Protein: Homeodomain phBC6A51-type domain-containing protein
Amino acid sequence: MARNSKRGRPVSPLDERHYQAIALLADGRMNYSDIADSVGVTRRTLQRWRQRKDFDRELRKVNAKLVNEWRRTSRERMRLRTAQDMTWYFNAIGTL
Structure:
């Protein structure tokens, strides 16, 4: 088990509340106070969690997964297969 460098106390592994907070942070629709309330912790506790390396690592993984999913679906939506698709696209961006 890793130790907290400031106090020398063992750091507990991430539990279900941590993963709920990570999902809500990655979603980006709620502020810290709302996320803390929905998870059942104080805002300060949520801020301390953000400073943990393991929490930050998991949050970056979730964010990367969301970005990759968005890129993949965006490429699929923007694939121009026919002349009609191209006409629609150029009309949509205002070049035709």
Observations:
- Residues 53-78 form the longest helix (26 residues).
- The domain at 16-93 is CATH 1.10.10 (Arc Repressor Mutant, subunit A).
